Every structure is written in C-alpha cells, then in structure tokens.
Fold this protein.
Amino acid sequence: MPLHFHAAPWPAGLKLISALGTIIITGAGYAAYRAIPTPSGFTHYFGLGIALVFPAILVLSLLFAVTGYAVDGSDLYIQRPFWHTRIPLDGLSRFWLEPTACKGSLRIFGNGGLYSFTGLYWSRKLGRFRLFATDLAQSVVLVLPACVVVVTPATPRAFVDHLHHLFPLSDVGPEGSSGREVEQVKPSGNSRPPL
C-alpha cells in the first residue's frame, strides 16, 4: 500500500507568480482574441490559433502541477491533478533534505512557477536534475542511477525517514557527508524560484 505525502504548501512567491502569470496570460489571450480579423479565411483561423495558445499554456500548467507524492515499494509517484508520473527508485544511492537545492539553478525545460516548479533544471551543486516542487525550501534530493530528482513534500523529514526505512542501505546526506543525520527543514513561506 503506497504511503502518500502532500506537496508542500505554496509559499508566497509561488502564489504571486501563479496569480500574476494567470492574469497576464489571460489578458494576452483576450487581447489576441480581440485582434482576430473578422472575415473567415486563413488569417482568421491563424489568429484564432494564436489566441488559443494562451489558454493552452494555463491548462497545461495546471494539469502538470504537483499535488503530492506517493511511495509504493520501489516507485515514487508524482501526483498530478488527473494522473501521476512514475519514477522508479531502484538503485537509489542517496537522499537528503536540502533547503537550498535549487539555489542558483537554471531551467533547461519546464515550468518556472505557474502553479508549480517542474521540469529539467541544472545547478553546479546537483548537475542536471528533474524538479517536481511547490515550496523550494522543503526540497528533498534523490540520487538515482539515471538522474537526480528533487521533490518538496509537506513533511520532508517524514518523507526522508520513510525512504530510509525502505532503502536502509542508501546513504542519507549529500556526497561527502559524514553521518546519516540531516537537519530538520523549516517551512520558509518565502522561497525564491530558480531562474
């Protein structure tokens, strides 16, 4: 039976980015719709296609938002509004709480704050990694054979403890750390999004 973890509550920064992004994209979509030439034909349908891009951005961002996580045996499921993304945890070598995991990271491809932070990112600290997050200050880093994954459960300590129970031979802590103890993460409520 899978153990479910809620995604960390949205910090003020994510709420602000999502609200402003929704307003701007909705306004741009409305403006594009109003600018569509009225006669039918190629220009009308082309303009309509352009106008529909804006609501599509909102819908896709909402559909790919992170709502929670479930750990079932050796699989991690990133929960979305209508489906989940499966990440096999086979070969999990280490994991740890890292509130600054995304500091200074660059987005390669993905969503930088419209309802969540998701996609492929890069940083000097982690290299290339997949991000499925809401509050970046609640980050938990998972090092797998094929990739590094960063998630942000509402209770990161309980998440790490559960992983440690399932994968007792995996190291807890970043490479080069001496012990298995990791500091407690405190909700910031004001985490800064990656670039």
Notes: Confidence is low (pLDDT under 50) at residues 179-190. Residues 36 and 47 are 5 Å apart (CA to CA). The chain has one domain: 1-195. Residues 12-34 form the longest helix (23 residues).
